[in-house]
Amino acid sequence: MKSRFNVLKSVYENTVFRRAVLSLLSLLGLSLIIFTLARIVPGDPARMALGPRAPEEIVQKYREMLHLNEPIYVQYYYWLTNLFQGKLGISLTSFREVSVDIAEFLPATLELMLFVAIIQIAGTLILGTLSGSKPGSILDGALRVFTYVGICVPAFVWGLILQFIFSYVVGVFPATERLSPGITVPRITGLVTVDALATGNFRAFVDALWHLILPSLALALGAMAQEARILRSAMVENINKDYVLTLLSHGIPGYRIYFKYALKPSVASTIPVIGLDIASLIANAFMVEVIFNWPGISKFGITAMLKKDLNGIVGVVLMAGLIYTVTNVIVDLILTIIDPRLRYGEK
Amino acid sequence: MQGAGPLLSVKNLYVKYKSYWYTYHVLDDVSINVKLGEKVGLIGESGAGKTTLLKSILRVLPTQGKITGGEIFYKDVDLLRCSKQRLLEIRRKNVGMIFQDPLAALNPVFTVKDQMLEVLRYANERADMNKSDLINMALDLLRDTLIPDPERVLNSYPFQLSGGMRQRIVIAMALASARELLLADEPTTNIDVTIQAQILKLIGDLVEKKGLSMILVSHALGLVRKMTDRVYVMYGGNIAEEAPTSKLFNEPLHPYMQLLLKTAPKLVESPLTEGIKSIPIDYRNPPTGCVFHPRCPYGDQEVCRKVKPPPIEVEKGRFVRCHLYGSGS
Ligand SMILES: Nc1ncnc2c1ncn2[C@@H]1O[C@H](COP(=O)(O)OP(=O)(O)O)[C@@H](O)[C@H]1O
Ligand SMILES: [Mg+2]
């Protein structure tokens, strides 16, 4: 008996397993909260779905079909049993299964997130390291100004500025959509760049890349400036540590010291912020998706909220929760890879 | 040509730390030199500026630190004005420094191997060096510093090792670059008392074996007495006294040094920080005249309060900055 208990205990103590269980539980909790919230805010979903001129009996029928007249916990029970069959319910705006909608719109946003992540991480590491290793330099001052601007200017304004300059004035990058007219890519993953590469269509890949640059930049710039500042502070502190001065005293060139030996212990405070910023795009990309006519999930989510599309709201929020959870796991994983003290446990 | 000039000579060095609000005038007209093969001690309580002086020599001060005057010559190379490449060469192949705190001197997120190989790669720029050569060199250095099981240590992270072990690694790394001059900054301060003497003996033996010159900063006066030829006594960013080791300990001239010896009479391994009531100097606004006058038993004369004493050569090779011994001329 005892040994079996110990095995269970050790499985529980295995952090991966424990995290999975905890994540699942918190997602379930999240679903309960958002399910309830969506139903207690004012507004009649059935009426909104069918429009103001639909006859009352039909609306009534519709309510019954959606179990809207029953207590919330009964509704939740129906929703949960549905969920275990992999269904999130019918959207009241598209009249399709919500999971089908998500599958359609999510990849566009995921692709955007991927490129924002690449730009943001590369930019943060380079700017943060350069300005942090020479505090007070011209670049450092420029980054400071850029940060203040970055905090004040929201992503969609960046989007409009970039669109104006690079699409309308200079005309190098396309203003909207994911691909130029006439170029098509078969849908495999839904990430156009990946699908283009998978089918060997290099022209479409470049075209997709070109379309991604402006919206990704718009979403990346502001957050990148702030993240670079966080990295900068950590760098400024660490370049005076004896372990950096020691390498300096051995004649190791500056670029190797700063971009390797000072950077690695400095990034720990920046990584969780980058993770959160990128995960938050799932909802925050809305305005940019509108401006760039990007068929993403943010647009779908906001429409669901405005139209009180009950199943749509719950589905999108849950998916956002899932993305935050996954991001957290990735962030923790990276932190553990970077800091051996987390891996081996100090002392 | 060796033996002509000193190996290292620091002349009239001024170093400040600048923070946002204040300027700390730490080193104030400091001159020291080290001759080839000489072992020089540097003593003085915490905050005297010993670390600042050593870091200045290799130009590895923290960003707030600025050298504002003086010169530093390594042989005939002007370290404050030479090309960047020349400075890098000297850091790589001539001078090595053991930093004060072995816990702080090793990067916590890289293995010992990462750090040692990095250092060795640049200390031995030769086209035929490959990775296994470097590893063997690292292992040899670790063996030199009497580290048991060097393979395991090499693959460890610093936090997996004891303080004494880390200090040996720091010594091994310093030796990779110190082909001529070793700067040892309190190599025993932050490690277990029971192995302090052992570590100092190790350094002494290695310096002897490799024929190095050395500046040794230490609070262990007894060991400084045993291991050095000449000693500089620092107080408040000034060199208070300079003398051959035996003369200094037998007949200290500067009132500060006399106080030090009085409070550490046995001279075995007595740490000197605790000794006298230590009022840290406010470097933003250091005392006028002689920096030691507020604490000096003879410091109530007007000249001590007003005039900074010049170095006075009491006998050949013995200098003291104190008005008791005249006012120079
Ligand atoms: N980065 C810094 N900024 C301001 N003051 C500093 C800095 N580093 C050292 N100091 C000051 O310089 C003085 C001398 O320090 P240090 O050279 O470490 O002395 P020691 O090694 O003799 O103990 C101390 O008063 C210390 O507070
Ligand atoms: Mg010190």
Quick description:
Chain A has 347 residues and is mostly helical.
Describe this structure in words.
The complex is a heterodimer of chains A (347) and B (329). Chain A is built from 18 helices and no strands. Chain A has 347 residues and is mainly α. Chain A has a domain at 100-306: MetI-like fold (Orthogonal Bundle), CATH 1.10.3720.10. Chain A is globular, with a radius of gyration of 24 Å. Chain B is an alpha/beta fold and 329 residues long. Chain B folds into two domains: 6-94 and 178-325, P-loop containing nucleotide triphosphate hydrolases (Rossmann fold, 3-Layer(aba) Sandwich); 110-177, no CATH class. Chain B is 33% helix and 22% strand. The radius of gyration of chain B is 20 Å and the shape is globular. In chain B, 46% of the residues are buried. The model of chain B is unreliable at 265-275 (pLDDT under 50). Classes of the chains: A mainly alpha (347), B alpha/beta (329). Chain A binds chain B through residues 135, 236, 239-253, 256, 261, 264-265, 338-341, 344, 346-347, and chain B through 55, 58, 60, 62-64, 87-93, 96-97, 99-101, 104-111, 115, 118-119, 122-123, 157, 159-160, 170, 173, 176-177. The structure holds adenosine-5'-diphosphate (ADP) and magnesium ion (MG). Magnesium ion binds at residues 50-51, 100, 185-186 of chain B. Chain B: It comes from Candidatus Terraquivivens tikiterensis. Chain B: InterPro entries: AAA+_ATPase, ABC_Ni/Peptide_Import, ABC_transporter-like_ATP-bd, ABC_transporter-like_CS, Oligopep_ABC_C, P-loop_NTPase. Chain B: One of its GO terms (molecular function) is ATP hydrolysis activity.
